[in-house]
Design goal:
With about 325 residues, the chain is mainly beta. The chain has one domain. The chain has 2 helices and 23 strands. β21 and β22 form a beta hairpin. The radius of gyration is 22 Å and the shape is globular.
Amino acid sequence: MAVYSGKQWEMYLALESGNMGTAETTNGNFVKLDVTNVSDLDWGSVTHEANLRTGQQVKKSTDHYVSQKGASYTVGFEWVVSHEQGLQHLLYLATDDSASAYEMAGNYTSGAYVHGSDPTPMLATVILVNPDATNDRLLTSCGLNELTLSLSSGSEGGRLVASGTFYTGYKPTIANSTVAPSGTQTAFVKSLYDCTTSTMDANAVLVKDFSVTISNPLMRVGYQGGNADPSEYTRAGEVAITGSINCKYDANSDNTLADWLSGTAKNISLGDGASIDFDIPTAIYMGHNIDLGDSEEGVFVEVPFEATASSTGKAITIIAT
């Protein structure tokens, strides 16, 4: 009997071209995310109750109740970014912006997600491909509840890493999906070393690590149909954009302590301005952590931050093209 490896699982992703609740099936709309890590579905919201009935002191099998009605499912992943289309799909799902530069403004309002109607912006079909070919997990009308983009000189050769969590309120299909991704996958291999400009409050800084997380949770509302799938989705909660930047502590970065303590918004910018770029115009510093360890590379300071914005001002702008 074969022993399966976690490295044999694969992830396919497509933006859905039809109505909410209808999975995408066109091979040409799917790309493969050659993930480094992927989790199985979180089955935690499936109902499993047991009630000991009268007549005996040991439960009967009929005393157990299992139901997927009203459940929701999440799946986590980590991907060392290798192609443009996959990254752009993720950015679209996280920001609701359809093209680079991907932006979120202070007046952001979620789109409408109603079962049986064409949602704007689009949702996604996600497939976890099981090595036994009969237990693939096909997830319909997924949102991306959280996306983290990170660049670190100490891992993956400094390359851009995307990680996050997909969410769906629809019952997954467990079967051979038969999908064979054939969508365009244009190579996109960018690293920290492609970021020719890095500034904090217009001061040039030498960056060792950078990460930003866009949290824009989507939740199911109501139920309909035989599986009690959602009537609607809503994104009514806070959109939180947080991250951290770790840079050399010198004359250009030593004012970050005063900026944190004053609570004054400052610009953080990292990239090349053309193919990969992150800009947080009004970042609020959330701390100031200096590493005074015995390191030959010198002293570095980590500054966690939160993006802010009002009205049409941009909380974040990301270029990926």
